[in-house]
Design a protein that fits this description.
This protein has helices at 2-22, 31-36, 75-81, 90-116, 123-163, 180-205, 208-212, 218-249; strands at 170-171, 174-175. By secondary structure, the protein is an all-alpha fold. Strand 1 (170-171) and strand 2 form a beta hairpin.
Length: 250
């Protein structure tokens, strides 16, 4: 029993470390704003990298990105993987932990943008833009998209094992087969991180980020932006619905 739990803990830890190393999130809600400003005024904004796990260029330690605190953002993915072993409130609680992390990181990035803006008349606007941009990106890329994908993987693995009539594999009174869906969910984290981050990066640059920075040009551009963010928001509910349908098959 102890060996099985220890193994699961090792797999969970390895998955989180792998995600942390892969998730050097390049999306920067200040990018389009900084590039348009004179060189002399760019320095104050460079340290605000809302979704980048790399240390700041100026050496400042970002507690939300450069320390173990960032693992809070992965709580929901681990919660989805361990759903079969958690009480009813376990998975929602894991989303709560991730949501708290997202909110704290969002406030931090918005505050830095506000303080880094040299034009007093633009401080509130800049802070609001970065706050909304960061919040949207984080909720999509760090919470709802990966969580819905992991749930599909876990449920699909569970159903596949049931349909294949895989026999129990008893080790010290514990059925090892029951841990396979959890392991599949944890392992899949490393494979969904980069595709999700890249997709949300592109989607944000053509929709929310573009709109917040006043870069929408004409009805066609606005239509593309609305369709893009609409699709991003619709995917998680669709995947959660699919996961529920898959679970009913078992």
């Amino acid at each position: 029993m102890f060996a099985v739990r220890a193994s699961s803990s090792i797999v969970a830890g390895a998955a989180l470390r792998q995600r942390a190393s892969l998730s050097a999130k390049k999306f920067n809600p200040l990018a389009s704003y900084v590039s348009a400003r004179p060189v002399a005024k760019q320095r104050a904004s460079f340290s605000v990298k809302a979704n980048n796990a790399e240390p700041s260029a100026d050496g400042e330690v970002d507690i939300w990105r450069d320390t173990p605190v960032r693992y809070m953002g992965y709580a929901n993915e681990v919660g989805e993987a361990f759903a079969a072993f958690l009480p009813g409130w376990g998975v929602p609680a894991s989303y709560g932990v991730a949501a708290v992390y997202v909110m704290l990181d969002t406030v931090d990035k918005g505050s830095k943008a506000y303080k880094g803006e040299e034009d007093e008349s633009q401080k509130v606007k800049r802070g609001a833009i970065v706050t909304l941009d960061t919040l949207t990106w984080q909720l999509l890329a760090s919470v709802f998209w990966p969580g819905s994908f992991i749930r599909c993987v876990v449920n699909a693995t569970t159903v596949a094992l049931a349909l294949a009539h895989v026999p129990e594999l008893d080790v010290n009174g514990v059925d090892i087969v029951k841990f396979i869906p959890t392991i599949a969910g944890l392992v899949s984290i490393r494979f969904v991180v980069k595709p999700i981050d890249s997709t949300i990066d592109y989607a944000m640059s053509t929709s929310v980020t573009k709109a917040l920075n006043g870069k929408i040009e004409g009805p066609a551009d606005a239509g593309i932006a609305l369709a893009t963010i609409g699709a991003c928001l619709a995917l998680p509910p669709a995947l959660f619905t699919l996961a529920a349908a898959i679970k009913e098959i078992a």
